[in-house]
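Task 17 of the worksheet. Students: predict the tertiary structure of the chain below and write it out as structure tokens. Keep your answer in the requested format; marks are given for formatting as well as content.
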Amino acid sequence: MIERYHLPGIAVGVIEDGQVVYVRTAGETVAGSGQPITPHTLFKIASNSKAMTTALLGRLVDQGKLRWDDPVTTYLPQFRMHDPWVTANMRVADLLTHASGLPEGGGDLMLWPEPNAFTRADIIHGLAFIKPGYSFRSQYQYDNLLYVVAGEVAAAAGGAPYETLMHREVFAPLGLDRCQVGAWNRDAVGDVAAPHRRDGERNVAMPEAAAIPAITSAAAGGIRCDLTDMLSWARNWLVPTHAQLQWLSPVQREVLQAPHMLIPVSAQRRAWDHTHVMAYGYGWRMADVDGQWSVWHTGTLNGMYSMLALLPDRDSGFVFMINGDADEARTVLGEVLMKHFTAAADDRGVDWYADALAQRAKQRSPSSPAPDTSAQRPATPAELARWSGQYRDPWFGDVTLCPREGKVHFAAAKSPTLAGTVMRLGERYLVHWDDSSNLDAWLDFHAASGKQPIGLRMAKLDPEGDFSSDYEDLDFQRVGSCRP
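Model answer:
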């Protein structure tokens, strides 16, 4: 895996019959630093944080401080969705199953890219302005914002901030001594993996300050843990001790890992795993694989990939974390490790699955390919004079499109890395971000009519780009002119 995908660093652990039977770490915390990955190296576990958030909620249910069927407004009276009926009927459980009606990744621009100035209060306020993509409870569409809301429900029910509760109710009782959430210091904690991006043939570390701030997205994807603690976390689900069954009751354990919302099964999963049913629980995915039941989740953040998988009927599973671009690598490694348990006679290894993925990528033609931007040029202030100004979206807030040094500059008030130059490509305009890790976006202006001011909509240049770059959900109106 390391050689095939040129991974900067990886930590892998395997559990068989309740016991850790394999641990392997390789690579560096920062490429070129000489600092090795160890079982105690902290990684961003990203959306694997969701299962820790739901475990916290389950603890509060066991303590009688919360019920799954309680309306969200019982704990957060200010909570609003776009549809008032949905607001009134949204239960705590509905925050966890990705079936709220929010479009896939809806509102994620309030979480990423980081750093940004959006608060959890901003998210709760902004939800009322994000138009639904489908009807309530009708289908699975992955979102992150409602897990942030779930963290605030926990805080209201538990009487302490989410981060305090996570340390007190989850990390401490389970002995997850290295896991971090909230504000902490990299130098004081030590042994922390940096995320990496690929630059040609090189892995380039993405810098972080020593002082790690508390982040808005913590309940959805903001926890960091090491391999040792992640294996302890996994064994708590597979072979819980008497004390761990007191920590979280069997009833709540079953609720968290029971199917609550069906997920469509992909052709690849049917072909590779003979899967018939796939579903989402509370912070966990689940499916049959080669006739065996699996429960798992993945984690993805810019430059960090992870997976934790359980086979409850076998008291077995695995976890791995990678500090680099590893989308295909995660798919392949997850498949090979799963087959170790579900199809031991399967002799298809890393190369077979990696080759199959590469071949499918060649054969798959995107429905709307990304445009050729080689002919783009900076738009002039003169040609954009009609459209320049200050714009506002009801959930994302303010942006400006204003002249600067002979060009037109786009800047978001609360998301400083969403800043760039407005370019012209044929008859259309786009924004080319200064930070190349952000997906460039089309800018489509609409002329004023009647009492309606000039409007601006946005869309990803690459329609196949990550759903968290949800420019399509933005609807700006011009609210003022550029300031001198």
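Marker's comment: DSSP finds 14 helices and 23 strands in the chain. The radius of gyration is 23 Å.
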